[in-house]
Amino acid sequence: MVANIRYEDIVKAPKALLHDHLDGGLRPATIVELAAEVGHQLPATDPEELGRWFVAAADSGSLERYLETFAHTVAVMQTAPALRRVARECALDLALDGVVYAEVRFAPEQHLERDLTLDEVVEAVLAGFAEGSAEAAAAGKPIRVGTLLTAMRHAARSQEIAELAVRHRDAGVVGFDIAGAEAGFPPTRHLDAFEYLQRENFHFTIHAGEAFGLPSIWQAIQWCGADRLGHGVRIVDDISTEGPDPVLGRLAAYVRDKRIPLELCPSSNVQTGAAPSIIEHPIGLLRDLRFRVTVNTDNRLMSGTSMSREMALLVDAFDYGWAELRWFTINAMKSAFIPFDERLKIIDEVIKPAYEPLLRD
Ligand SMILES: O=c1[nH]cnc2c1ncn2[C@H]1C[C@H](O)[C@@H](CO)O1
Ligand SMILES: [Zn+2]
């Protein structure tokens, strides 16, 4: 699969992940078990077949249809034990893939179909991440997992979710996000929540510039004050490549000048139609222009992917080597929502020492 780098070495190398959805990363076998417990009807009950179903169903070229597949994961995440289980497995799966730092997001408002309160939902997930991280560390694969709470952009609970995030900030919630269908639901609908978070000195990212273009990115940054862009891939619409050198428009220049991190998710973008293929993905141009590019999984289940696989796809498509993989990893770590000294410690004590021998080879 990979020309100049072995896949198992990518798995071993430390990686940092900023954009991964908890409800987009369940193990198919877990979905089958949990669905049987609650009587939820699945499109397939054989785990392998179910895994293939998710990838195929999400492969539609439309974000709206991609999002429909989440009905089957959200349906089995409605009790504290189920939430705890999927969070534990998420931490373990990421750690086994060599991810040393991850920010995992989910929307608490989607897990209230039974009798849980918003706070109970968050507590169950945090307990699962703590459990999975402890097990991973014991197995020699330490990982730090930070939680982001997402509000759904078509709904009207963002202020409540923002307050929920701040309430749990000292227990592992490190940021806030909005997600869901982008077209027709601009981020400015949630301005109150973003202004509240700013007054609380809290961090947030916004899904913007995925299914909808520059106006969404502009609002996310200049109206809402987003620290990072979830995807943000459409920023290329503000870069002209017609002449001998690329020319940046004012918004693209602002994003680059301010070092605003782009949480790029290559496979997910191909599935939703935001990019035509991996090889044509704007990540190549954005990296060449030295935007603050990070590589992410988005939804491991729907894309049949992992952090190592996303890196390997880029190695293949763009002929990247360890220097680029290290750059993506350090970019992500610099852009994390945990405190500066903790970010630096992971860069200096985990990432740099591990990449040093790889760069020498
Ligand atoms: O790539 C995405 N764009 C917009 N919304 C998304 C994406 N991936 C997942 N979501 C939605 C579906 C999930 O149920 C929700 C919370 O994780 O976030
Ligand atoms: Zn996403």
Automatic annotation (TrEMBL):
Its cofactor is Zn(2+). The active site is at 210 (proton donor). GO terms for biological process: adenosine catabolic process; hypoxanthine salvage; inosine biosynthetic process; nucleotide metabolic process; purine ribonucleoside monophosphate biosynthetic process. Substrate binds at residues 21, 23, 180. Zn(2+) binds at residues 19, 21, 207, 298. One of its GO terms (molecular function) is zinc ion binding. It catalyses: adenosine + H2O + H(+) = inosine + NH4(+); 2'-deoxyadenosine + H2O + H(+) = 2'-deoxyinosine + NH4(+). GO terms for cellular component: cytosol. InterPro entries: A_deaminase (IPR028893), A_deaminase_dom (IPR001365), Ado/ade_deaminase (IPR006330), Metal_Hydrolase (IPR032466). Binds 1 zinc ion per subunit. Keywords: Hydrolase, Metal-binding, Nucleotide metabolism, Zinc. Coiled coil: none annotated. Belongs to the metallo-dependent hydrolases superfamily. Adenosine and AMP deaminases family. Adenosine deaminase subfamily. PANTHER family: ADENOSINE DEAMINASE (PTHR11409:SF43). Catalyzes the hydrolytic deamination of adenosine and 2-deoxyadenosine. This is Adenosine deaminase. It comes from Micromonospora avicenniae. The lineage of its organism: Bacteria, Bacillati, Actinomycetota, Actinomycetes, Micromonosporales. The gene is add.
